[in-house]
Design a protein that fits this description.
Layout lengths: L6 H25 L23 H12 L13 E2 L4 E5 L2 E13 L9 E12 L5 E2 L4 E6 L4 E2 L1 E2 L11 E2 L4 E9 L7 E6 L7 E5 L4
């Protein structure tokens, strides 16, 4: 019959085994300080920050948003043609200033101003293949380097566009604006509405 191992030796062996296990654990931790990898960590990529506008981009956006046309002034976005030129407002729609006549306007309505004026005859030609609506047509005039809005004298010789013009036909409208004799240059804007481009005529009319 085998002799029994003393209890003191058993306690010593257990202590040695515990020390060995602790030592192994310490070695593993030192070799991998970040700790165990989590599942799927190899395929995970941090999301890139959303792009932000640089200072120059922010200034550009803010300046374009804040820029407004001065009330009563025409837009600078439309390229002007000469007073005797023909301009295209929309596909198949052309316009020109058929006549610019110096007149002495007589004011008879509130807000009108009499005196030296220009009677401007605008001619629109329709080659769209269908009837062209002119009911929304508007003519404005400006004068001088500051583009001062000219006052319309509608009561003295003004003849607005007809409501429409048939395909292949032309229509005219006469618009009278109080413009000083010395005012140069003159700018005339025609807006036919319905999404058509605003056409601009600019020059020095012969008085």
């Amino acid at each position: 019959m085998l002799s029994q191992v003393p209890r003191s030796r058993m306690y010593v062996a257990a202590a040695v085994a515990a020390v060995v296990l602790v030592s192994v654990a310490v070695v593993l931790i030192v070799r991998n300080p970040s700790g165990p990898a989590t599942a799927g960590s190899d395929s995970t990529v941090a999301a890139a920050p959303s792009p932000t506008a640089t200072p120059s981009e922010e200034e550009s956006v803010s300046s374009s948003d804040e820029e407004e046309t001065e009330p009563g002034k025409p837009s600078n976005g439309n390229r002007a043609v000469g007073l005797k030129a023909e301009a295209t407002s929309a596909p198949g729609v052309t316009a020109r200033l058929a006549e610019i006549e110096s007149v002495q306007a007589t004011a008879s309505l509130p807000g009108e101003v009499g005196g030296p004026a220009l009677a401007i005859t605008v001619k629109v030609k329709n080659e769209t293949g269908k009837k062209l609506d002119l009911a929304l047509g508007v003519v404005n005039a400006y004068y001088g380097r500051e583009r001062t809005p000219a006052v319309s004298v509608a009561s003295d010789g003004e003849v607005p566009f007809p409501a429409s013009v048939a395909d292949g036909e032309s229509a005219t409208g006469v618009y009278v604006f109080q413009i000083p004799e010395e005012a140069r240059p003159v700018r005339v804007e025609l807006d036919l509405g319905n999404g058509a481009d605003v056409v601009v005529f600019k020059g020095r009319p012969q008085r």
